[in-house]
Design a protein that fits this description.
alpha/beta; Rossmann fold; pyruvate-formate lyase- activating enzyme; 3 domains; seven-stranded parallel β-sheet; five-stranded mixed beta barrel; binds 5'-deoxyadenosine; binds iron/sulfur cluster
Length: 480
């Protein structure tokens, strides 16, 4: 059996700790050892990513690093010499999928023992997961977390050279790495990280532990990355952070999300989006900037989680249903054509039928264009996991279906109202179901299908909406 080297393990009390020094920007150049260059020659990698956009962006960074070492991308796990599973910890079903994938990889590795399997991402930032991998999942060669992705090539080099299993998961990050290569997944749309981590500590959420303290990138670095994307012909940028409203607070140089957003908009990217915003510190200045710049898309993801004040308090959300509604009213007044989407958790500990109905009422009040609905899933070590999870599974599912019906009815109304209008669509590609049909997203985030030639891919075109369905719309292209 191969020896195991455990350099660092995640410790939850350290992950929770926010009392440590300021962050430094790390600008060192990535170097690839001769040994790794030789080992990677002619080899292929595959990264399987679960979870949110932060993970998608991490995959792009990992892919960039691997490309520097000379790896090329495989179509799937079966063709790969190196597989990285990039995990999500936000709910139990995401974790179950990862363990399923790890099981599959074990059987692949039995057939091809030289294959290297690495597991990374948010799940790995939990001590109990690392322990399970260490003891039970012995086919895994490398385990690293969210804080040392920039060291991927050094870790790989070590695994290849020493033939050991390596576990290196830090509890926190003290740097904001810059100058990392990346291979972007899409040709016209790009994600740009503006900050890492989250300090909100909503009581149900594991993210502040797995992604660490809020740390903002320097605005000059963000603006340079965005300017380069504009130069390269990208049509859409999405600025990413767990809570983008908090951007710049840690920099202590007067930076704010409102001014960053305005400065990126001024670079002239045709479409600018951002996610995610917490309703608590969504400033008036932010609303004004979104309303003023036509290239900032009028689509805001504003997770409400619940429509009931006591549940919101127990979730640690820092707003009431009335203050959320006030914010929504203000946004609607100042942002023409605004589309709001949200996240909702049903069956939070102690949620009564009446409290749940406040959430249903909230959905009707706001009239969301779309909504991600989740059944509450206790996360080890979070404050909510210590509360009694006393809503039965059956009840959670009943509430979930009722909520979904309400959400769909509201989304349908919003979609129906688009019929007969002409909207701008950024063409993504041909439709999955039909080659002669193009598809793309309208400014408000609705998926639109229409007939057109493939050379329109990557362009923004006008489409007249003919029909609306729940999750997509049909239209016809309007020629000037
Ligand atoms: N259980 C269910 N849903 C959760 N989310 C976060 N943590 C949990 C949990 N423990 C949901 C929230 C969040 C979205 C990304 O995932 O709605 O906004
Ligand atoms: Fe989790 Fe709340 Fe932070 Fe969002 S704002 S990542 S829900 S702790």
């Amino acid at each position: 059996m191969r020896p195991i080297v455990i350099k660092n393990r995640p410790i939850m009390s350290e992950e929770r700790d926010r009392r440590f020094k300021d962050f430094e920007t790390l600008r060192s150049e990535v170097r690839v050892s001769e040994r790794l260059l030789k080992a990677a020659h002619g080899k292929k990698y595959y990264i399987r990513t679960y979870g949110c956009q932060a993970n998608v962006r991490d995959e792009e960074t990992m892919a960039g690093l691997l490309a520097m070492a000379g790896f090329s991308k495989a179509e799937d796990e079966n063709q790969a010499d190196l597989v990285i599973v990039n995990t999500c910890a936000v709910r139990e079903n995401a974790e179950d999928k990862v363990f399923g994938e790890i099981g599959l990889l074990k059987s692949l590795k039995e057939k091809r023992p030289d294959m290297i399997v690495a597991v990374a991402g948010c799940m790995i930032q939990q001590a109990h997961v690392v322990e399970a991998i260490e003891k039970k999942y012995k086919s895994i060669d490398l385990v690293f977390g969210t804080h040392n992705i920039h060291e991927l090539l050094d870790m790989l080099d070590e695994v290849l050279a020493t033939h050991t299993r390596l576990i290196d998961v830090r509890s926190r990050s003290e740097v904001v790495p810059e100058n990392l290569p990346s291979v972007r997944t899409e040709r016209f749309k790009a994600f740009v990280n503006i900050m890492y981590g989250c300090d909100k500590f909503c009581t149900y959420c594991i993210v502040p532990y797995t992604r660490g303290k809020e740390r903002s990138r320097q605005s000059a670095d963000i603006l340079k990355e965005c300017a380069d994307l504009v130069q390269a012909g990208y049509q859409e940028i999405t600025l990413l952070g767990q809570n983008v409203n908090a951007y710049g607070k840690d920099l202590k140089d007067g930076s704010s999300f409102a001014s960053l957003l305005e400065n990126v908009a001024k670079l002239g990217i045709p479409r600018l989006r951002f996610m995610t915003s917490h309703p608590w510190d969504f400033s008036d200045a932010m609303i004004d900037v979104i309303g003023q710049y036509p290239n900032i898309m009028p689509a805001i993801h504003l997770p409400v989680q619940s429509g009931n004040d006591l549940i919101l308090r127990n979730m640690g959300r820092r707003y009431t249903s009335a203050s959320y509604k006030d914010l929504v009213d203000k946004m609607k007044a100042k942002i023409p054509g605004l589309a709001l989407t949200t996240d909702i958790i049903v069956g939070f500990p102690g949620e009564t039928e009446e409290q749940f109905m406040d959430t249903v009422e909230m959905v009707r009040y706001v009239g969301y264009d779309g909504c991600f609905t989740f059944i509450y899933s206790p996360r080890v070590g979070t404050p909510a996991a210590k509360m009694e999870d006393n809503v039965t599974d059956e009840e959670k599912h009943r509430r979930f279906s009722l909520l979904l019906k309400t959400v769909e009815a509201e989304a349908e109304k919003r979609a129906d109202a688009m019929v007969g209008k002409t909207v701008s669509v950024l063409v993504d590609g041909t439709s999955k179901k039909n080659d002669s049909v193009l598809s793309g997203y309208a400014e408000n985030g609705k998926l639109i299908h229409f007939q057109g030639s493939e050379d329109l891919v990557g362009k923004i075109v006008k489409v007249h909406i003919l029909e609306s369905h729940l999750y997509s719309m049909m239209g016809e292209i309007v020629h000037d």
